[in-house]
Amino acid sequence: MTDDVRGPDVKPAAERLYGRQRGHPLRPRQERLLDEALPRLRFPLDKAATPAAGFGETPSQIWFEVGFGGGEHSFAQHNAHPDVGYIASEVFHNGLCSLLTRLVPVGQEFTAPIPDMLRLWDDDARVLLKALPHASIDRLFLMFPDPWPKGRHAKRRFVHPQNVALVARVLKPGAVWRVASDDPTYQAWVEDVMAAQPFFDAPPPATERPEGWFPTRYEAKAIAAGRQPLYWTFTRR
Ligand SMILES: C[S@@+](CC[C@H](N)C(=O)[O-])C[C@H]1O[C@@H](n2cnc3c(N)ncnc32)[C@H](O)[C@@H]1O
């Protein structure tokens, strides 16, 4: 039972990993993208048990990105790997609109053909991760997660023992989990959490973005502000 009256898409703060879902007010084109294009591109939850069936064609692999922000990394990975089924998740409406803007020409929000191999998930990534079968995902990306630097917010960090077990459950043996962060508190936290878990090989991070990783907006801001990103590649045992 809950007496939370803030609406169905706002979860109690203790369970949420993210901040606001809306920033500046949306323009009419953005409203149309969310109302008309997003429903056509949304990963169908009723296909979660057989995720390959959620794409327009049978994918060679399935990759999952948590919190794509402006979507530049998802878009680049999708374009570079057209045979891979890519599930891109983000809860922030302005971020969803950024990626949708790249995918849907103006005026074609309702009619533009949707890419076969890209699906969006506009709820908490954990909801879909929980619904996916064991060992069904080939790669997972967590690029510059919200750092939640205050100790009392540590439960909201995506790299958290509970979520590490959740990610481990859906990844295939040998699958890779890529994580990047520029926040020193989060970096130390990732090292501690991953040193204490049994599911992944967790070698030390790279200090330069490795080959095959694509830049993100958040990373560019971090580097411009003089922060040093770290790039981890964890491999499912
Ligand atoms: C700091 S931003 C980084 C965005 C992007 N990856 C980048 O590097 O530019 C983190 C993003 O993760 C999203 N996010 C946080 N928790 C999430 C969750 N549980 N499911 C989906 N998205 C989430 C937030 O809305 C936010 O846009």
From TrEMBL:
Record key words, sorted: Methyltransferase, S-adenosyl-L-methionine, Transferase, tRNA processing
Documented EC number(s): 2.1.1.33
Pfam families linked to this entry: Methyltransf_4
Source domain of life: Bacteria
Protein's UniProt keywords contain Nucleus: no
Signal peptide residue numbers: none
GO cellular component, one term: tRNA methyltransferase complex
Binding site for S-adenosyl-L-methionine: E65, E90, D124, D146
Binding site for substrate: K150, D182, T216, R217, Y218, E219
Biased composition (Basic and acidic residues): 1-18
Annotated GO MF terms: tRNA (guanine(46)-N7)-methyltransferase activity
Region annotation (Disordered) ranges: 1-26
Catalysed conversion reaction: guanosine(46) in tRNA + S-adenosyl-L-methionine = N(7)-methylguanosine(46) in tRNA + S-adenosyl-L-homocysteine
Pathway membership: tRNA modification; N(7)-methylguanine-tRNA biosynthesis
Its biological purpose: Catalyzes the formation of N(7)-methylguanine at position 46 (m7G46) in tRNA.
PANTHER family in alphabetical order: 3-DEOXY-D-MANNO-OCTULOSONIC-ACID TRANSFERASE/TRNA GUANINE-N 7 - -METHYLTRANSFERASE (PTHR23417), PENTACOTRIPEPTIDE-REPEAT REGION OF PRORP DOMAIN-CONTAINING PROTEIN (PTHR23417:SF14)
Similarity section: Belongs to the class I-like SAM-binding methyltransferase superfamily. TrmB family.
Protein name, as recorded: tRNA (guanine-N(7)-)-methyltransferase
Originating species: Acetobacter indonesiensis
Gene this chain is encoded by: trmB
